[in-house]
């Protein structure tokens, strides 16, 4: 993710500190392996197990990581990581956990209701939190519609790009996202 976020990090400069939380399950490959040779890969849930007990372990792990960091203004997740961000937003909205962040940035992801996690965790009402949704215009329609619709329309910003299931690394894209983050933080 550090490489994928390089343009956004450069645009934010010293106004933001990025702390990366690795997913807890090592895996041998990823659909992105062809683009990033020699990297280690991780998943948020074991590849063939999305059971309720695994989800509870995931929630405990994510909350432990956030508690260690202490101060978090923005949660940013890509793909499975963005599903974790939505899960935490959902749990905070239902008062199952304490919300300790101000903004959620979700990149290239479908909604929890897509089947990645139990449907009982899907939002029944829109998440009433500020959010930014970033995705490629050539990604599956579900990526472009399902998740943004899970967040309140008056509190969400959608940013589209042409890089597919990835993040562009050009300066213009970085500035666009940085501007959206700054506006959401000021709002």
Helix-strand sequence: HEEHEHEEHEH
Major sheet details: 4 strands, parallel
Total domains, how many? 1
Would you state the CATH class?
Alpha Beta
Q: Segments where pLDDT lies below 50 for 5+ residues?
A: none
> Span between N and C termini?
27 Å
* Global outline: globular
Q: Helix/strand-derived class?
A: alpha/beta
Radius of gyration: 16 Å
CATH architecture: 3-Layer(aba) Sandwich
Please provide a written account of the structure.
- The protein has 187 residues and is α/β, with parallel strands linked by helices.
- It has a single domain, classed as Alpha/Beta hydrolase fold, catalytic domain (Rossmann fold, 3-Layer(aba) Sandwich), CATH 3.40.50.
- It contains five helices and six strands.
- It has helices at residues 6-12, 52-69, 80-93, 141-145, 171-186; strands at residues 25-27, 41-43, 74-78, 103-107, 131-136, 156-161.
- A four-stranded parallel β-sheet has the order 3-4-5-6, with helices on both faces.
- Strand 5, helix 4 and strand 6 form a beta-alpha-beta unit.
- The longest helix has 18 residues, at 52-69.
- The chain is globular.
- The two termini are 27 Å apart.
- The relative contact order is 0.16.
- The mean pLDDT is 85.
Features:
single chain, alpha/beta, Rossmann fold, four-stranded parallel sheet, two-stranded antiparallel sheet, 6 strands, Serine hydrolase domain-containing protein, LovG, hydrolase, FSH-like_dom, AB_hydrolase_fold
């Amino acid at each position: 993710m550090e490489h994928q976020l390089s343009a956004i990090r450069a645009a934010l400069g010293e106004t933001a500190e990025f702390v990366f939380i690795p997913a807890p399950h090592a895996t041998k490959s990823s659909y992105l392996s062809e683009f990033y040779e020699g990297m280690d890969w991780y998943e948020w849930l074991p590849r063939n197990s999305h059971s309720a007990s695994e989800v509870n372990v995931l929630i405990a792990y994510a909350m432990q990581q956030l508690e260690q960091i202490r101060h978090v203004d923005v949660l940013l997740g890509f793909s499975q990581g963005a599903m974790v961000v939505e899960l935490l937003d959902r749990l905070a909205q239902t008062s199952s956990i304490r919300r300790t962040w101000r903004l959620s940035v979700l990149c290239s992801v479908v909604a929890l209701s897509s089947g990645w996690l139990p449907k009982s965790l899907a939002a029944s009402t829109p998440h009433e939190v500020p959010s930014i949704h970033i995705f490629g215009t050539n990604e599956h329609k579900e990526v472009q519609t399902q998740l943004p619709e899970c967040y309140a329309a008056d509190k969400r910003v959608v940013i589209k790009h042409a890089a597919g299931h990835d993040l562009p690394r050009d300066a213009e894209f970085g500035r666009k996202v940085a501007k959206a983050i700054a506006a959401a933080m000021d709002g």
